[in-house]
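Notes continue from the previous slide.

Worked example: a multi-chain complex. Inputs as given:
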Amino acid sequence: MTTLAYHAPQTVDEAVRVLAGGNGGAKPLAGGSDLLVQLRSGRTRPAMIVDLKRIPALMGIRTEGNAFVIGAATPCAVIGEHAALRAAWPGVVEAACLIGSTQVQGRATLAGNLCNASPAADSVPALLAARATCVVVGTQGRREVPVETIPTGPGQTSLRPGEFIVEFRLPGRPPRAADAYLRFIPRTEMDIAVVGAAVNLTLDAQRVCTEAVVALGAVAPTVIPVPEASAALVGTHMDAAVLERLDDACRRAARPISDKRGTIAFRTTLAGVLARRAATIARHRAEVRA
Amino acid sequence: MSKHHVSTTMNGEPTEFLCEPQQTLLDALRDELQLTGSKEGCSSGDCGACSVIVDGRLVCSCLMLAVEAEGRRIETIEGMAQGDRLHPLQKHFLEAAALQCGFCTPGLLVAAKALLDRNPSPTERQVRYWLAGNLCRCTGYDKVVRAVLAAAADMRQEGGRP
């Protein structure tokens, strides 16, 4: 670490060049709430750190038509304060705002949460349920990919050396559409999800669910979509029997491990319970947005 | 490796320092600037003892590189009292005995100030959630929360004075 170099490029192109020059030994830095801990523990020993926060395109939230574009290095605190984003995507915002303390919120980012690739990352199930995409750049150009293609296993991503995320894109919202994210932790704040569940859905004028995406965190090596759970909701009024099928589909999809945070049996049960509750919250929100 | 030259505004004063690229802002505050009020508890962003305000945002100075401070406005515990005149939060922490060993106190005070800067009338619940990232192992939190609420009430009254 004595030879660590620090760069703070001002543009995306400059960042691509600097990261490519690092020959795989360069690490992008956004909020740093994971990277600095890993630096101190010696878990990562980069030759170069490339701070992305001086690039205007990576900071802040803008709209394009009905869609929201969130700069990859935007702190979660800024996401939480964006009233229009909160109104349109309450589940994504509540998930982002569950990451760490007030202090961590002032720095932590969606890109960091995604690229740290923890199966328990709070924002990822919500982004996945929202069908969010991210724009990735590197020496081979620019590509827009679904968020779920980035994490490939605990601590592993599909990003090629030198690639980084520029922004997240959340699609526009029809009326009567809403999302919700719930996680279980054994205390009220400052902990890592034992299980997380996100539900994003749309209702029609008769309050029939026309579209749904369900995603679970901390029950598999990566955050997972649960298409069977989504299918259980679509075409229904989401009555008790439907929610039971949703619960069942989530329990079947869960392939958790037992660790100090919870056993396989507990996590499996939680996956169903949290998905059912998140679906109920999302439905209430969608009715309000009618 | 040459040191980085960093220019900041520290507690309202233009301040420059030299740092190694891997040094955290907390390292620079304590070792380069001798601002030892910010404490190193965990160095992993869990305890909040190193809390500072950067461009109006509460952050852990252990989770930020010192070089990232270039051009930033930083507030530390050293900037809280005006000479001998304590900040209302400091006064109420003393009056309510909201500290024992005092190690977490600078972080709690800076975090509480960041809250009152943006919300002059927080509820008890809001205070408790806001301060969830500041760990105290001896005093507990009840006296701290009461001191913050009392300071907020004082500051609202002062602000309302003609």
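Summary box: Chain A has a mean pLDDT of 96. The two ends of chain A are 55 Å apart (CA to CA).
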